[in-house]
Amino acid sequence: MSITASEDKRLNRKRIVIYLVITFVLTYAAEILVIAPLWGSADMTEALIAQNLTATVMMIPAFAVVLTRLITKEGFFVNGLYLACSIKKNWKYFLFIWFGSALLVILGAALYFVIFPSKFDPDMSYISATIWAQAQMEVSKEELQATMILQFVTGILLSPFINAVNCFGEEWGWRGYLLPKMQKQFSIVPTLLISGVIWGLWHAPLTVLGHNYGVGYPGFPITGILMMCLFCTVLGIIFSYVTIKTKSCIPAVMGHGLINGFASIGICFTSIENPFNVFLGPAPTGLIGLSGFAAVAVYLLIKLHKEEKTEAKQEENA
Q1: Taking a C-beta distance cutoff of 8 angstroms, is the pair 197, 235 a contact?
Q2: 52 CB neighbour count, 10 Å cutoff
């Protein structure tokens, strides 16, 4: 028996709610009850456990997809899973999200250092001090340069693959499941803005713990949570664009993996005497570092909105 459009929309809304409840409850419980007590521990074993658990939490959105599909009897039809993707057909989207994201990270960092030249240190004193603090080991300028070249190359070429498993956990949830469900409820602009804020709020417990922005800053932790929502909204628009165009979350997985492995490259060139402002840059988690991504996101959002209006007119005239 077929269902009406209103019934389908109501069922779709139910699936969104169930998915979000599962995702947020499991994530917040794990981060508040398990990870938080271990976070920042002086015990290396506990700190390592917290780090590994934080990476594991990224799999919860994918787990919530499976659970929601089972609970609501939605099933696992191949065409609706957003997992298949032809590289030959969609190669330009893969190149865009992969190398385009790397370029935007570099441009954002470069812009930050142009605006704040005193923050730039070619001798990489910040990363040198970090290595000393963590390993009590001094490294020469030549060793730092060699390490940086290796990190730069591997960050661009290997990060999308090294981080693929954990990033798949998020992207299959946010882009492969929530995105198409939200598109059934809203037009494209509110879909991407709302889902971006949801994604940002999902990170809230870790933001409170100091992930990405530290602690003790003005407006803590609200400022950090709001900034994370902005960051996730901007990246979410770009990741959603390639997902919509390819009908797959795989390009978004690659983009997410690249960001996770390469976003902090600019921080390596900051000065220990003139510390960087995490809310500005040079990483894309800061406003200046994010500016290139934001410009692209605005362009893509306008583009998708225009395409949606064109399709609606064509349907009216059909």
Answers
A1: no
A2: 11
Angle, vertex CA 95, rays to CA 92 and CA 100, nearest 5 = 120
In three-state secondary structure terms, 212 is coil
The 10s digit of each residue's pLDDT in 73-90 is 999 988 889 999 889 999
Q: DSSP labels for 73-125?
A: T----GGGSS----HHHHHHHHHHHHHHHHHHHHHHHHHHHHH-GGGB-TT-H
Quote the pLDDT of residue 214: 93
At which residue do the structure tokens 């200046």 appear?
A: 288
For residue 203, the one-letter residue type is: H
**Regions of the chain short of the pLDDT cut 50:** none
Domain ranges of the chain: 87-317
Taking the C-alpha atoms of residue 40 and residue 112, their distance in angstroms, rounded to an integer, is 29
Nearest to 253 by CA among 128, 89, 87, 132: 87
> Burial level of 150, CB count in 10 A (0-12/13-18/19+)?
exposed
User: pTM to 2 decimals?
Assistant: 0.94
In three-state secondary structure terms, 270 is strand
Token pair belonging to 184: 């059934």
Q: What is the pLDDT of residue 1?
A: 52
Are the beta carbons of 279 and 167 closer than 8 angstroms? no
Question: Residue 145: its pLDDT value, please?
Answer: 81
pLDDT of residue 153: 92
